[in-house]
Amino acid sequence: MSEEGKNTGVFICTSCGIKDCIDTSGLVKIAEEAVRFGNCIEQANLCHPEGIEVIKKSITDGKLNKVLIAACSPRAKTEEFRFNPDVQIERVNLREQVVGSHEPGDEDTQMLAEDMMRMSLAKLENTHLPTPFIPDKASEEILVLGGGISGITAATEGARAGYKITLVEREEKAGGWLNDLYKQIPMQSPWTRPQDPILAPALEALHQEKNISLLTNTEIIDISGQPGAFCVRMSRGGEEISKTVGAIVLATGWEPYDPSGVANLGYKDHTDVISSVEFEKTAGKGSFKRPSDGKPVKNVLFVQCAGSRDKDHLPYCSSVCCGTSLKQAQYVREANPDANVFIIYKDIRMPGMSENYYLEVQKDSRIFLTKGEVAGIIAEDDQLLVNIKDSLVYSDMDIAADLVVLAVGMTPRNSEDLKLSYKQGPGLPTLKYDFPDSHFICFPYETRRTGIYAAGSVRAPLTVSDSMEDAGGAMLKAIQCVEATKRGEAVHPRAGDQSYPELYMQRCTDCKRCTEECPFGAYDETEKGTPLPNPSRCRRCGICMGSCPERVISFKDFSIQSVSAMIKAIEVPDEFEEKPRVLVFLCENDAYPAFDMAGMKGLKYSPFVRIIPVRCIGSVNKIWISDALSRGFDGIMQIGCKPGDDYQCHFIQGSELTETRGENLQETLQTMMLEPERIRTEFIEIDEFDKIPALINDYMEEIELIGPNPFKDM
Amino acid sequence: MGMETIRINPDIDFIEFLKKDSGSDLSICMQCGSCTAVCDLSPDENPFPRKEMIWAGWGLKDRLMADEDIWLCHQCGDCSATCPRDVRPADVMASARNYAYQHFARPRFLGRWLQSPKYLPLLIMIPALIIAGIIALAGTLKIPEGPVDYSHFFPHEWLNGSFSVLVLILVILMVGSVKKFYSGLRVAGSPDKSGSLLRSDALRVEKRSTLKRMWEIFIQKDFRSCTTNRFRYIGHYMVFGGFMMLLVVTLFAILATIFFEYPMPFFHPVKIAGNLAGVSLAIGIVFLAINRFKNPSGSKAGQYTDWFFLINLFLLAISGGIVELARFMDWSPWAYYLYFVHLVLVWLVVLYLPYTKFAHVIFRTIAMLK
Q1: Which of A400, A300, A286, A370 has the alpha carbon at shortest distance from A340?
Q2: pLDDT of residue B299
Q3: How far, rounded to the nearest angstrom, does the alpha carbon of residue A604 sit from its chain's CA centroid?
Q4: Pick from A348, A363, A393: which is nearest to B58 by CB?
Q5: Which helix or strand (DSSP H or E) is residue A326 part of?
Q6: Cβ pair B51:A366 closer than 8 A
Q7: Partner of B127 for a Cys bridge, out of A187, A579, B173, B347, CB 3.0 to 4.6 A?
Q8: Which pLDDT score, from 0 to 100, does residue A19 have?
Q9: Which of A346, A359, A385, A394 has the highest number of chain B CBs within 10 A, making it the mutation to test binding with B?
Q10: Which of A106-115, A309-318, A381-390, B174-183 has the lowest mean pLDDT?
């Protein structure tokens, strides 16, 4: 028998200890009762070619649309269990979360496996394959904003990969800071002398690409739309230009830190105390002259970390200032063989191979380096007397210098240059130190606005060579975005996901929670406050679904209804003493793999928990919690990824939102006359699998203390 | 830290001397402190030789010349073996000491002569002429008849007298430099313990009582803890022990010429001790020489003076033995020529002591006992 769109095949693997742990015939029975059209097959070694063949044959013969595989974790064997894209796949995690984590042959383990089968069947019943959203007039063109070395490189790389690029520069000519460089820190072996700026060859490469249109003297008026169809309005010397682009690379670069506020460095007090940026501009013009009286400069003192790595000024390391000062020290020594150069540092930081350059500069007997703190600078006779404390020389020092150069750090240019006409503002949200990253280590280039990728020193303080590498990376991301958007797929981090939030607008009350809580600014809104979704801006986390009090937001394969159905599918026994039940909402990104790992390590925890994986802990809607409580669940746990600076939610704000929404949930508990402990929120890191048994078992003990949910059996 | 503020004025010539003498590209020191971490002498609160390395690199000559820590160093080479930049701090410390010999010793021209082989004949001529002159004054400047008796060639009273004068000259020459060295230490060493760490009183050896420090000078137990170069310790101790013993034997011999019978018979205990000491000295020097070939320092420049001293001392020990042998074997007249050469070697070692490595016996002793 078959019915269009409802033919379900259930395949239960008996290997990897599954058969030894549970009675699979119980699962077969449940499946056979639930599935009206299709088949149910028990098979050993389901992931082996013979098992795959069985599934494939059933799909063809039985015209299956939905396939349920009860075997290992959905994170395992993904290649093996990939079939025709028209077939919807659901997995029951028997191996890791039943066999690995619970006692074999136990009645409670069997009940858990059977409930998991019911939940997955309910989910399959209530979800559908998504139909992708593809924006109208999807463009493959890429806009690069900022014509410095990062922008130039990004544009060149993009064009070489076959994409049309518009490179926008606000100044008269491209090149940015490199126009002011006399020489740059060496980028390759032999690391001995500063090299000529890479700008000229980079511009030559840029001009060779036919697919790049360079717009100088141009600024952004505004940007609207979404990936695949950003509408960019620009002003080129007053003349307005409009363009539709698929993705944007933000390469607007940096501004030098103004050290005026660092009192001990006397930047404001002495004319002959200048910044490294100012010094660079005077290089390459023969001997150096003092700004105050034009007399030739002999001894120069460089102060590293001028404001940097100081929590009162610029708290981070810009990673380029050490190299810059070493390079400038060589300028001074080349201009005058009798000059002495002093470099006072906190630490010399020459990343990677550039350590070789440090070694080379040190070889000069007249370049003196020490760790130390500049206590003050005073004018003495014709010179500046720099007082240094805490140096490696082991006494306080006075050094007379003709010129003091402050090695200043890099600050990112404000991303409001983008002039986004988004509901959540014109710029990119920042994470730390005003850099518009969404996660520095895991997701470089990803800003919190999908389709906009930061490259170069607007993203992080970088050297010229690092900026160029960065530019290539960000351009690849932009290309990935253009291509994925064209297919209606999410770019990141759920790459390839074709589902997107669909709003049942008739019930929307314009409460604006979704437009405000979306971490990625995917929603704009009308003047009235009605949400205007932009599906290609979306990262498919479901935080909007979790936020919606009217439950109007759903995905095809993850919805209010599908999760509610899963909750209803669980059998909650009446007797509490032996069979309490706790529902766990588990974030798929880090918490779920941690549970899998606990299973792989054989760590056992209470079999009374029932786990529902969610896209982000922020996607948990309040209704599921009240559903579960009225079903008689004794407790509910929400386990998300750890928030904070050192660790992070994949969707930036999911974990934090869950904490703030907690107050709301407590109100629900109060209206139901339930104890506040019935809901607990926990955060774990991906490698904290060893903490899981205690996490679960402690909560079970607490629930036993509180006693049964009074709604049980009502 | 740091009660006193110093005005930085790098002495480039000093840096260049150290670089040339040690053969170390010392300015590439990155002040990591690996040397300090492995140095057995360096206590927690006084990073030796790290601070000395930056003083060297910055040309802070006055600092290093007033630093007693460099004299406490055994040059065991642990730091050089550990240095990630191959700066060889041990060699730099040795070069700082070499600079100090020239820096403190007077008259300066002798120091200059000791720097280059071209002055070698001149350096040998000076004691040779002086000794010949003394013998001439004694009226014995001819090869005596009969069995070999050195007192016929160089009467005991003239010999003892002239060597007393030699030692006196040495003491007079040394007084000035020692005074300068000592007062430098006192100036640099601030009485305020919380202040400048220039004072090396934190170095481990300084925490002991004076008696213990004296004892350390004789037993050199700290030197034994050097793991990188054990061989050098053995060689050095043989030289040191042999030399000290010979000094005692010589004093006894002087007394013997006055109060007892002289020369002593071969099996006299003092004679046996003297001969053993001479052998120890010679073998010790061979050890040290082998060690120098095995672990060549990067520099060729600084080695001449060192070799001058080592070879002198070796020839001194060997010639002493031969002179004794010549007496027993009655090799007239060669015995007298050898005796003359031996005396010249004694003068070479003693007279030029302030300018060679040998001067460390003075500086190190002061640094240790201060």
Answers
A1: A300
A2: 59
A3: 32
A4: A393
A5: helix A321-335
A6: no
A7: B347
A8: 95
A9: A394
A10: B174-183
Preferred mutation among B58, B63, B198 to probe A, highest tally of A CBs within 10 A: B58
| Local confidence band at B194 (pLDDT 50, 70, 90 cut-offs) | very low
Which residues contact residue A14 at a Cβ distance below 8 angstroms, ignoring those fewer than 6 apart? A24, A42, A43, A44
How far is CA A467 from each of CA A187, A215, A280, B102, rounded to the nearest angstrom? 12, 21, 19, 54
Q: How confident is the model at residue B209 (pLDDT cuts 50, 70, 90)?
A: confident
Which residues in chain B have Cβ-Cβ distances shorter than 8 Å to A392? 31, 50-51, 54
Q: Is A340 on the interface with B (CB under 8 A)?
A: yes
Q: Read off the amino acid at residue B325.
A: L
CATH architecture of A502-553: 2-Layer Sandwich (3.30)
A241 class by beta-carbon count within 10 Å (0-12 exposed, 13-18 middle, 19+ buried) = middle
Looking at residue B193, what is its pLDDT? 36
Q: Which whole number is the average pLDDT over A677-704? A: 95
Domain ranges, ordered by start, for chain A = 1-98, 142-253+413-486, 259-400, 502-553, 559-707
Q: How confident is the model at residue B207 (pLDDT cuts 50, 70, 90)?
A: low
**Alpha-carbon distance A176 to nearest alpha carbon in chain B (angstroms):** 34
Residues of B in contact with A389 (CB under 8 A): 1-2
User: Tell me, what DSSP letter sits at residue A354?
Assistant: G
Report d(CA A142, CA A163) in Å as an integer: 7
- The CA distance from B29 to the nearest CA of chain A, in Å, is 8
Mean local confidence (pLDDT), A669-676:
90
Query: Is the CB of A362 less than 8 angstroms away from the CB of B28?
Result: yes
By percentage, how much of chain B surpasses pLDDT 90? 38
Would you say residue A12 has pLDDT above 80?
yes
Domains A142-253+413-486 and A259-400 share a fold: yes
A367: which chain B residues are within 8 Å (Cβ-Cβ)? Answer: 27
CB contact under 8 A, A368 and B197: no
Residue A61: partners with Cβ closer than 8 Å, 6 or more residues away:
none
Q: Which of B2, B57, B198 sits opposite A389 (nearest CB)?
A: B2
Q: pLDDT confidence of B302, banded at 50, 70, 90?
A: low
Nearest to B10 among A368, A371, A395 (CB): A368
> How far off is chain B from A371, nearest CA to CA, in Å?
9
Q: Does A394 touch chain B (CB under 8 A)?
A: yes
Is the omega angle on the peptide bond into residue B333 within 30 degrees of 0, that is, cis?
yes
pLDDT (mean) for B41-59:
88
Find chain B residues with C-beta within 8 A of A349's C-beta: none
Closest Cα to residue A423, out of A265, A529, A546?
A: A529
Select the more confidently predicted residue: A439 or A363: A363
Interface subset of A 362-381, CB within 8 angstroms of B: 362-371
Task: Spell out which residues of chain A touch residue B199, defining contact as CB-CB under 8 Å.
Answer: none
Global pTM value: 0.86
What are B88-106's pLDDT values in tens digits? 999 999 999 999 998 998 8
**Token pair in block for residue A204:** 């030559």
Cβ contact B27–A365 (<8 Å): yes
CATH for A1-98, options being 3.40.50, 3.30.450, 2.20.28, 3.30.1490 = 3.40.50
Set of chain A residues whose Cβ sits within 8 Å of the Cβ of B61: none
Residues of chain A in contact with residue B30, where contact means CB-CB under 8 angstroms, are 348, 358, 362
pLDDT at B138 over 70: yes
Domain A142-253+413-486: homologous superfamily in CATH: FAD/NAD(P)-binding domain (3.50.50.60)
* 3-state SS, residue A255: strand
- Single-letter code of the amino acid located at A327: K
Question: In this predicted structure, what is the pLDDT of residue B297?
Answer: 65
